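INFO  loader      accepted 1 record
INFO  loader      residues=150
INFO  predictor   begin
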Amino acid sequence: MSNTADISDIANWFLSKEAMTHKKLQKVCYYAVAWGWALMNKDIAKNDEFQAWVHGPVSPVLYDTYKGSGWNLINKTKTPSDISADVTDLLESVWLTYGSKSGNELEALSHSEKPWLEARAGLSAAERSSEPINPGIMIEFYNSIKSTEY
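INFO  predictor   done
INFO  writer      dumping tokens
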């Protein structure tokens, strides 16, 4: 088992919970990475950059993989085996916190949070951006709210 899974492994882990839209998948993966930074002070996945797109945080790697799904549900998968126990525990917590929300609810939530807002500073609501969301700001913001989330 590797120390760091790939972002696609993280996506497959969430897809093992339920079929979901591309938007929801992007957001739960974002929250997994963000909380990994805040709670574990590390990257939990390779290729885990999230950018501040119009509809919230987006992983270009996951976008390329799932863009053909459109608004349709992405099928449920089997749980990947290449995820360490500590990361699996984190993913379970993220799922318990965010898994019952829709993609639109998660988009609205991410739009209210400092990491996405700072990465989009100076842009109009509909303006495209590939600005990365800063892991340092994720750490600062999610640590500031962790007592209310976990």
